[in-house]
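Z., the sequence and structure:
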Amino acid sequence: MFQATACERPRFEFLNCLSASSADQMADDIRLGLAADQKYIPSKYFYDARGSRLFREICQLPEYYLTRMELTLLRRNARGLTDGFENGDLVELGSGANWKIRVLLDAMGQARRGGTRYVPVDVSEDALTRAGEELLQTYPELQVLCVLADFMLDVPRLPLDRSKLILFFGSTIGNLDDEQTGVFLKALAKTLYPDGRFLLGLDMVKPTKVLEAAYNDSRHLTADFNKNLLIVLNREVGSDFHPDYFEHVAFFNERLSRIEMHLRAKFRMVVQFPALDLSVRLAKGETVRTEISRKFTRPGVEAFVKDAGMTVTRWVSDPYDWFSIAEIALDGRCTNAVSKL
């Protein structure tokens, strides 16, 4: 742990903002999801150490365009997206690896980094600590406050003492349905100072063939990533899932404009959760939904941002409008700038 004098902020701090214990939250999520007509397990439980490693490998696949395109947009627009931000908190929700934040920190330069506190927010304590310490080694002038939190539940508990540039990359907002998106954005708006901003990565609607290929890769890494969720549950709550008894299914639901990932039972089975006093019956061919990934249009994004009391102030996109980054602020600061690569 880094030390500081009495008049300084510590260079490295850790804050637990979880509103419930992770074990209790997981138990509640499993009971709720597996009792639904369409059984589901929240996608946030993908990311144990193996799941995070598999996802990093997926991001390098030729079929998986999302990370590659978002990084390109950030590199070409980082100066404009960070312009005017200084002496505040750079808050990254669902922070994960450090690829994207480094692009913005590099663009800011040493002087502005010296007045910046980086605030990664994630549910994984190990990932937070590791990422924070790596950044401190690379940027010795930076301050880091790691926040252990579930961004869907704990946004209102984030520190409110400084102006913010909030980052939500990877089109992770696509994992939320319409209702969840509204709740999340309204809570987030309350954390912004009048001069705060919010950068939102968005995977846009595109040909179905391209979308489905990204979630059904030729190396079957996404299938391994999907089945790893069952391994996580077996370890964390003592269930007796057999991953080989399921097959990976991913398709574009055109009516809801979203990719859906499922695990489909190859046989009729009963899955036991002794610690939860729970048994779950699955018919042959029945699926458990493990992720939704909504795909967006600009009018749709502007509508749900407006409903949350905010407005899009800048929009950057690739020439084909496959991926976009929206800069968002509280209502009344709209410049409506548009940029293409």
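The radius of gyration is 20 Å. The longest helix spans residues 65-82.

Let me know what you think.
H.
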